[in-house]
Amino acid sequence: MLLRGKNYGNDTIDVLNKSCFSQYDILACSRSVILSAAAGITIVFIVFKIYKYHIFKHKQIQHYAIFYITAAEMLVCIASFITGHIYPQVKFSANFLKLLTFSIICHLHWSSSARAYNREDLIQHAINPGLCLYMIYCTAVALMGMVDVGITWNECIKPYWLMLSIADFVAVQCFALAAVYITVKTNCLPTLASIKSAQRRDLMTVVIAFELSAIFSFSFDALMRFGTEETGCSAIFGHSQFFYSATELIFNVGKYLLPVWAILVVFQPVENSTSASDITISGGYNLDGASNTSRSSIRGFHQYQRMCVPSTTTLTSDDSSRNHCMYPSLLNSPQSPSNFNSSPPPLTNNTDVIGYTNRITLNCNPREDGKYFGKFQHHNLTTISEESNINAVDNLERLSIRSEKSASSYY
């Protein structure tokens, strides 16, 4: 009877075509409302997170891309939850945005690890090409699925859903293996135990969330492949709306919402407020922005660079309004004369380095041919006062704490 009245029978017993608007069913509508409400609340948190990133002026552009794409994914998911399987194009769009978000997370994690181990060549020769090929495959499969659509009775039989799930599952396994390898390698680095623990916790949270999402996606799509043209996809659930709605609810939460919640917890912006007034001239602060915490944490300690004393031969200049140049920078320049190579007298134990220092400056002005002329001046100058000394060291300590706080957040 069902085969003879196939059109009428399919519309009546098919559990996939029920929703709040078309073929109304209270269980299907309740499922759509719950999922849409959860996705809507998630969007609110994403918007607050994006606002926080812009306030802090976070440097890594991948973080902005992740949250903007995730917000678009949640909007598409709400449309998908409301319409159900009536419009498969919406579900393919949500699936594609999820895979795109994961690929950006992979690029962020792998490129940061490659730079940490001084293997920037892997970014151009392995990471970028591999992720590009992965996204080309996902884009092609999603487009084919959007074009080759059918009715809800046999839509699950199409191979595109399982093809995307397999790609997602394989990519997550590669990400997990790389995370385990990098975690083992990180344990050998001389990093604080608290920083290692925070990095490992954040990384494993992302891995577990996407691992569960891939397992949910692969299991559900593999299960739907048992449908046939005669019995349809609805027969897998015994044409019961209760079993299908419960399965669909768990599947959508695990596939779409769980990874987004993990991203909201793990990814945190780092305040970028370092200005020129925060950076003091000291040997404990490197040019790359990293501070030497072992020295800057000692109050009253200065790192003075020993300067070379020039010979009696001086350059001439009578203009006292010329700019001042430090002698060591001129000594290391190609234009420095050979008579600037005399060594300074050795320091003894009785020398008060903190209270007294010899500073040698050069009054210099560039000539038309690009060279400098001027005369050296030797000043006996006392160092900064103890109060300003403490303030300078406090600045270095703040920079050290800020750098450690930035390192504690792996992403």
TrEMBL record:
Gene: 8230670
Record keyword Membrane present: yes
Sorted UniProt keywords: Membrane, Transmembrane, Transmembrane helix
Organism: Pediculus humanus subsp. corporis
TM region positions: 33-51, 63-86, 92-110, 131-153, 159-182, 203-224
Name of the protein: Uncharacterized protein
